[in-house]
Specification:
There is one protein chain. The protein is of the alpha/beta class and 410 residues long. It is built from 14 helices and 15 strands. It has helices at 14-32, 37-44, 48-60, 125-140, 181-189, 200-211, 272-276, 278-289, 305-313, 317-333, 335-341, 356-368, 373-376, 390-404, and strands spanning 64-69, 81-85, 90-97, 101-107, 113-120, 148-156, 159-161, 166-169, 179-180, 195-199, 222-227, 231-237, 240-242, 345-350, 380-383.
């Protein structure tokens, strides 16, 4: 449990308790819509009168709307009216700045993506970030002018000052250190618009936790591993995003797997990232086919992980070997996560796990060689259920969560 800081705390007054009840009801509607007042009362165990008063306030402020009716109970009475979140109440914009491409999306209040954009990430942040700001403005122009914009959630690579939007250290981008992303975006956007910043891997965890499979709500401690051009980790502890004392928690991609391994972008050797990232899979595959005749691969074909996974699915030996070897390293890399955090579940995202049966056995078997059964057995290891970019969905969640998160009591 969290220790109360007796030098800095607030007691729970009636207003705070009312706010908590409102947030609970709003989240029930978000997750179970369409749902009736009676259904909300049953789930929350709040009094029917309390639920009705909360719903009346939501209707007055257009947070929810009523549509559709259910059937009466055997005792008769009025048919239940179904409640829905009003999707046009507020909008959110998400941005994910990745080494190769930068993605952007506009979402409604339900977290449904309405528009998406992307552009190649450039090597000069001073020239590139104003272009990102222009794309953000173009997405904002597509919103209903009578609706509010909750803000922009921005995912960044590396060690991030989340308050000011500064990349303190982001070697994978190649931009150098202390890049003032927030300042550049604000100067170009020139609007009093909330901008929220977070490490992209942590945003992936937030996106999965908010918009992924509903069964994840059963778990309070979840580690999310995202495999792309690097290997990042987001940690959910007791239902909350864990950042660490200096916003650097979760850099398991830089845990050493083999001290004799290749040099990593962080300057060390043998990190998980150099063995299990998409770049590692591509390099491994290219090495395997270098001395072979490959009628399925012409010289002008651009090799990426999607293609390698497709070939592996079709049974091409070199691709299958490359994918499974990556999976083995990934399984080894889960060991310090399981021993360090003892999570309820580990969720893995990335192109390498989109065909989960292709890699599941390798991941689980290799993990079992480094983790004892009492720790490994209770830990669920699962693929991501998000069908769009997890960091983008996390950026949306970062903005919308301001409406759905409980107020601080102490």
């Amino acid at each position: 449990m969290r220790k109360v800081n007796l030098k800095d705390f607030k007691t729970a007054n009636h207003r705070v308790l009312r706010d908590i009840n409102e947030v609970i009801v709003l989240n029930v509607i978000r997750e179970q819509q369409p749902v009736s007042r009676a259904g909300i009362t049953q789930v929350t165990h709040l009094k029917a009168g309390t639920v009705s008063r909360i719903i009346d306030r939501f209707l007055e402020t257009s947070l929810v709307y009523e549509l559709g009716t259910g059937t009466s109970t055997s005792a008769g009475g009025r048919k239940p009216v179904f409640l829905h979140i009003n999707p046009t109440k507020s909008y959110a914009v998400a941005v994910n700045v990745a080494p190769s491409r930068t993605e952007m999306a506009l979402s409604d209040f339900n977290g449904h993506l309405l528009h998406m954009k992307s552009l190649p990430t450039e090597s000069n942040p001073q020239e590139f970030l104003p272009k990102v700001a222009d794309e953000i403005l173009s997405l904002i122009s597509l919103t209903n002018r009578y609706s509010e914009l909750g803000g922009v959630g921005v995912g960044l690579v590396g060690l991030v000052d989340t308050e000011n939007g500064v990349i303190l250290e982001g070697e994978n981008l190649g931009w150098g250190d202390n890049i003032e992303v927030g300042k550049i975006l604000r100067e170009r956007i020139k609007q009093d618009l909330p901008l929220y910043f977070e490490n992209a891997a942590r945003l992936s965890a937030l996106g999965e936790f908010w918009f992924g499979a509903r069964y994840l709500s059963e778990y309070s401690d979840v580690v999310f591993v995202v495999v792309d051009e690097g290997v990042g980790t987001g940690i959910i502890v007791n239902g909350q995003l864990y950042r660490g004392s200096r916003n650097g928690a979760g850099e398991f991609g830089h845990v050493c797997i083999d001290p004799a391994g290749p040099r990593c972008s962080c300057g060390s050797y043998g990190c998980l990232e150099v063995f299990a990232s998409d770049n590692a899979t591509i390099r491994r595959y290219m090495e395997k086919i270098a001395a072979k005749a490959n009628p399925h691969l012409s010289e002008d074909v651009r090799v990426d992980v999607n293609m390698i996974v497709k070939l592996a699915r079709e049974g091409h030996p070199s691709a299958l070997e490359a994918v499974r070897e990556t999976a083995r390293y990934l399984g080894w890399g889960l060991a310090p996560i399981i021993y360090g955090f003892n999570p309820d579940a580990i969720v893995i995202a990335g192109k390498i796990v989109e065909d989960w049966p292709l890699v599941e056995k390798e991941i689980l078997d290799s993990c079992a060689t480094r983790v004892s059964q009492p720790f490994l057995g209770p830990t669920k290891i699962l693929p991501s259920t998000l069908h769009v970019s997890p960091p983008l969905m996390g950026g949306i969640a970062l903005v919308l969560a301001k409406n759905f998160a409980a107020p601080e009591i102490i």
